[in-house]
Structure formats: C-alpha cells, structure tokens
Amino acid sequence: MSEVTHIHEHAVGVSHEAHHEGHHHHEHHDSFLSKYVFSQDHKVIAKQFLITGIFWAVIGGFFSVVFRLQIGFPDAKFPWLETLLGEWAKGGQLQPEAYYALVTIHGTVLVFFVLTAGLSGTFSNFLIPLQIGARDMASPFLNMLSYWFFFVAGIVMLSSLFVQTGPFSGGWTAYPPLSALGDASPGSKIGMDMWMISMALFIVSSLLGGLNYIATILNMRTKGMSMTRLPLTIWAFFFTAVLGVLSFPVLLSGVILLIFDRHFGTSFYLSDIFINGQALPNEGGSAILYQHLFWFLGHPEVYIILLPAMGMVSEILSVNSRKPIFGYMAMVGSMFAIAILAFLVWAHHMFVTGLNPFLGAFFVLLTLLIAVPSAIKVFNWLTTLWKGNIRFTPGMLFAIGFVSLFISGGLTGIFLGNSALDIQLHDTYFVIAHFHIVMGVASMFGMLAGIYHWYPKMFGRYLNNSLGYIHFWITMVGAYVIFWPMHYEGLAGMPRRYYKYDIWESFKQFGTLNQIISIAAIIVFLAQFLFIINFFYSIWKGRKVTTKNPWGANTLEWTTPINPGHGNWDGEIPEVHRWAYDYSKDGHEFISQTTPVGDNESKH
Amino acid sequence: MEMVMGNSSRKMHPHKFLLWIAIGSLTMMFAGLTSAYIVKSNQAGWQPVKVPSIFYLSTVVIVASSITIWLAQKAIVAKQMVKYRLLVSVTAVLGVIFLFTQFAGFSEMWQQKITFKESIAGSFFYVIAGLHALHVLGGVIALFVLVLRVFSTRTKFYSSTPVETAGLYWHFVDILWIYLFIFFLLVS
C-alpha cells in the first residue's frame, strides 16, 4: 500500500522533476500481485475487465449455441451435450428447465457482465485518464474495488450454474412471481438467491465505477482540456456513468423489495397466486410494480450499453476517415438528449401488461422521439465517412459495421415503439431481432472496434490484421443471417422463449429457417475464437508497435510512451490547445491536441 | 486513501465530490421506493398505517444532530478542539438515540399487528424507514471513527475535510428523513 500511496503523491505532481525520478524508482518494486492482480493502475484494471468480459462472452455465447441447437433441431439427439451438460441434456436432448436456465443466464451475462462491465468497465477505465490527460482515476482504490466486486459477482453467478436445482430460469428480467416464489420452478430456489446476490454485487461494482468516471471527467482534465475539447468517447462514457449512477439504485430498490417477498413474507409483488392448486396467502401485491422498477433501470441500461460503443465508433470513424467528426456539438447534444429520454420511456416495455392506454400514448411519443437524436448521430457518422480518405483497418470495419447494424436495428425500434403495433409484435422474435441487432450485436461491434483500435495502446503490439478481417466478415454476415430472418418469424407471431416450435401448426413453416439461424449462430460463435486466439497470441507475440502514434490520431493517449507505466506520462502531463478532430486541416494530415493554435488559425 | 487530484485548492475535495454523486444515487433509490409506495397506495385494498408518535421525537433528534455537526464544523475551523470533540460525540450519540426511537416505533407498529404478512403499507414503511436507518447507522459509525481519530492522534489535527464530508452525509440523511416523515404523514 505504501508503494501505491507513494506514486499518487507524485501524481499530485507538485514538482514534475521529482515525479520523473520517483516514477522509475517505483517500478522496480512492484510485486506481481500489486502490479497485475490488486492493481490500482486504471490501465491494468481495464485489461482485467476486458479479459473477464471475454470469459463471460464465451460462456454466454456458448449457452446461446446450446439453446439454438434445441430451437433448430428440436428432435435431434446430441450425445456430446449429455457428456458436457450431464442431467441438463438427458439422452442428448436439452431439458426444458435447462433451456430456460440457459436463456436466462445468456441474457443476464451478456447484458450485464459483457456489455456493461466488459464494455464500459474496459474502455471507461482505459480511455478516460489517457484521453483527458490524468495520471489515474479520481480514486484508484475505489476503481480496484469496482473490479473486484464485479469479479465476485461473476464467481457467484458461475457457482449458481452448479447447484442441484440449477441457476435461475425465469428470464433475465427476473419478473415475479417466478423470481419471488421458490416453489414456482426449480431455478427459482437457491439459483435465484445466487442470481440476486450476484446482481447486488454487480450493482455495487457499477456504482463505484460510475462515481469514479464522473468525478474523474469533471475534475481531473489536464490544462486546456475544456469540456468541449473532449473526444466524443469521453462524452459518451460520461453520459453512460450518469445513467448508471442514477438508474442502478432504482433496480436495487426493486431487488430489495423482491428479497422481502422471497424471504420475509411480504406481498409487494404477489397477489392471488396458486401453486399446484394451493392458494398462497399473499394478497394485494402487484407484479407490475416490479416491472416499473426494473425497467426504470432496464431502459437506461440499453443506453449504458450503447453509448460507449457510439462514442468509440465516432472516434474511430473520424481517425480512420482522416476527417473531423461531422457535427461535434450535435453529437454531444444528441447523446445528452438520449440520456434524458432514456429515463422517460421505460413503460414501452410494458405496453401489454395492462398499462393504461392513455398513459401508453405518452410513452409512445417519448419513445419515438429517440429517433431524432439517433438519426442525427447516424447522419453525422455517414457524413464523417463521406469523401473521407478511409483506411479500412479491422477496427474501422467494425465501426462501420456498427453504423450498419444501428440503422437496421433502429428502424425496427420505430415499429416496436408503437403501442398498437406492439399488440402483435410483443414477446415475438421481432423483439429478439430488434434488440439483438441494435443493442447486442451493435454494441459488441463497438466493443470489438475499440479493442482492435486501442490494442496497440493496451499491449504495445498489434493484432493480426488478416485474422481481424476474416473475423469481421464472418461476424458481420453471420449477424445478419442470424437476426434478419427473425423479423419474419416475429411478424408471423412466433413467440420468444418457447422450448419447441414444431408442435405449432403456424410455426412449422419456420423449421428450416430456424435450422439456418442455428447453423449461422454456431459458425459465428466459432469465428469468435479467431479473435480470441488473435487477442491472446498477440499479447506476447504480436507485431511490436514502433511509434507512439501508429494511427496518426490527435488524442492524448497517443502522446504517452508506447508502454506507459502507472502515471501514464513520464514527464509533465501535456497541455491541450485544441479539440480532438483537426484532421486534414491546413495541409496537415492530423494535428495533435497538444499542438498550439497557430497565428493563422481560429481557436477551437 | 490518497486521491489523485489537480492541485487547485479552489476545487472541491474529491471525497466530497464523490459523496455528492453518491447522494444523487441514493436519492434515486429512495425516489424509486417512495414512488412505488405512491403507485401502490392508489390501488384497491390499500390500508394506510398510522405513523407512530415516537417518530416525531426521531425527527427532533435528527434535526438537533444536524445542528450539532454544523457547530462542530465551525469549531474545528476556529481550532476549538475541545468543543469540536464534544460536538461530534454529541452528534454520534444523537444518531444512536435516533436509531433507538426508530426501533421503538417499529416495535410499536409490529405489536399493533402491522406485520409483513398483514399490511402492505406497513411492509413499505419498514423497508423504506429501515433502509434509511441503515444509512444513519453507517453515518454513526463514521462519526465514531472521527471521534476516535481526534482522541488518538498525537499530532494536532486541524483538517476540516473529514468532518465536512461526514457533515454533508449527515445533513443528507437528516433531510432524507424529514422528506420520508412528511411523505408518510401525507400519503398515508
């Protein structure tokens, strides 16, 4: 601990000469444990979040492969499944309880562990101090705690897979009564308790992280880094953190009430329930109340997932088009609008729960309003690309892929935002297709774009480009092959979360289609291993980065040494003189933020 | 824990800044719970509960404790350490008294058959007020740590930041209680 305090004293930086010496002195004394495990360096914590996120992505992805096998091939037997999953796949066929458990854990893990912790945990941690010009987070200690709460949350979730009654199986939204009554299903027993403990730990982790990101961005920018000179990545992380800090506590309050219903006999959410013909004493509760509390988090959560991807894509598109981002202030403004609207649209998840239709009309209006800032962003991305001198790096391809997916998925959002259309479309595969494309796959593309783009800064080496291109094309084509046909299934009324569809006359026609989707899902899942192999191989064996600024980018992270130590800059923190997007200006390909504004230039 | 910060002295102390954001976060949690209460109270079968009279005493005690911690902040700025010690201790003791009055109120309600199984309004009351009491408990522990630190340090200790931070939190739980109290009186 004294070591760490030591460097922070330097980081406060009264005398920068003293810091310079102290910094190198410090590095010799780091033990493995304090450098790689209980590290307080934001860059190491970012990598911890990333690698843990990759681990969870593999688990969550594998689960989707298993339940897709069931949907695509409901009558086939896969002996290897029994070898792998034991009781869950008795006789080589996935059991219904296991199917629901896999669907539930797939959702929970991907939404929270991969696309929240893995995405904003990784890149907020990595980029905020580097891009605003700070030595570390406002509180490196809280930052470390944030990771370890996430880690323990993961351990608890992982353990719940191995309990006898199985993990929670009532859907990732954990609606009561399935989540509130242990007798409701096998997964509602100890599995649900572990799910709740895990989520509570996860909420603490995100709150600690969010507090830190906000405090760092508002207080610790280097000299000259005004808010309007911030790269759009930082604005995105800022709004993400604000959303998280304000919405996760509401989920926590919903979970607290759920705990009382489960274990202390209250009836917040329960009323008039029969289990196996027996009436329960609970009366007067309302399951809708839980949905209100859940979706008050749940909808902002969508933007907690999406905004960081939007921010990183803006940056990557601008750098690799060698053009300034189009409409910087419009980008900030539209993110602000999205952040506000995120809190005002939650009930569009509840149009068919018996919500007052008059009230629903307001939520329709507010929901459709989101199309405005979204369209502004899409317009600005396309105009940034327009006539750009585009470099098709793998990171850039994933960023462009993000824009494509965001458009395709966003358009179906306009369908779903209408409460009248929702009568037909709710709880069908149309919804699955919509949110997977616009939030799941799109954010995953944003995350992959970020990894490909900032990998040289993270590890001082490049990822292999050829593998990157193969990875991109299989994933891009595969994503559309998987999710595009689901729109048709959904329009035909095929409900989500069913174990088997071939017993329904109306859905028999989709048998082959479901097989194609499942095969595509398996191929895309396997293709991700190209990336994972690339990722871990390149950490040690990748081509070395030889210049500080390999992409010719303007932002501050590229002014640090190739492998920055704890504290990021060897000497003084550079001063900022301009915004981050002076590309192809006055005959220069790029002008770093640290370059003073010339006499013949106007000020930014 | 040492914080990494810019060296400008005009800026807010990072502990205090983090606390302000955390207060925003906690506010949302209680806003969530009380709006759930409002939603439920408009539905059929809702039977309001009477707020126990001892909670008036709770309110007086916690307001008094807010005043004592405010005076403690003034005392440390004026370097009156004896007065400061006394005032912080009094605040902590008032906090404990507050917790006792809360507990007494809960027991009184429970004896009137307002239990988890019988009353939804009562359940809400226990959960919301209990959650607030937990936050007061956290504040009391922080205050005791402050008191111990004043008594144990050998060197003279004049920094007002810890007591300012603790004070900010304490005023927050105070105002939160006043809000909850008025809320329960009105909505019931």
Task: Tell me about this structure.
The complex is a heterodimer of chains A (604) and B (188). Chain A has one domain (38-270, 287-590): Cytochrome C Oxidase, Chain A (Up-down Bundle), CATH 1.20.210.10. In chain A, strands 1-2 form a two-stranded antiparallel sheet. In chain A, strands 3-4 form a two-stranded antiparallel ribbon. Chain A has helices at 2-12, 16-27, 32-37, 42-72, 79-85, 96-132, 140-160, 190-219, 232-263, 287-321, 328-342, 357-369, 371-385, 394-416, 419-425, 429-459, 465-491, 511-541, and strands at residues 274-275, 278-279, 583-585, 588-590. Helix content of chain A is 64%, strand content 2%. The longest helix of chain A has 37 residues, at 96-132. Chain A is mainly α. Chain B has a single domain (51-187), classed as Four Helix Bundle (Hemerythrin (Met), subunit A) (Up-down Bundle), CATH 1.20.120. In chain B, helix 2 (54-77) packs antiparallel against helix 3 (81-111), helix 3 (81-111) runs antiparallel to helix 4 (120-152) and helix 4 runs antiparallel to helix 5. Classes of the chains: A mainly alpha (604), B mainly alpha (188). At the A-B interface, helix 1, helix 7, helix 8, helix 9 and helix 10 of A face helix 1 and helix 4 of B.
Which regions of chain A are unreliable across 5 or more consecutive residues at pLDDT < 50?
1-27
Structural class of chain A: mainly alpha
Order of SSEs of chain A:
HHHHHHHHHEEHHHHHHHHHEE
Share in helix of chain A: 55-70%
Count the domains of chain B: 1
Using the coordinates shown, work out and report the CATH topology of chain B.
Four Helix Bundle (Hemerythrin (Met), subunit A)
Say which CATH homologous superfamily of chain B is assigned. Cytochrome c oxidase, subunit III, four-helix bundle
How far is the N terminus from the C terminus of chain B?
44 Å
- The CATH fourth-level homologous superfamily of chain A: Cytochrome c oxidase-like, subunit I domain
Number of DSSP-assigned strands of chain A: 4
Largest interface: A-B, 51 and 36 residues
Mean pLDDT level of chain B: 87
Number of strands of chain B: 0
CATH class identity of chain A: Mainly Alpha
Which radius of gyration of chain B do the C-alpha atoms yield? Answer: 19 Å
**Derived structural class of chain B:** mainly alpha
Mind describing the biggest β-sheet of chain B? none
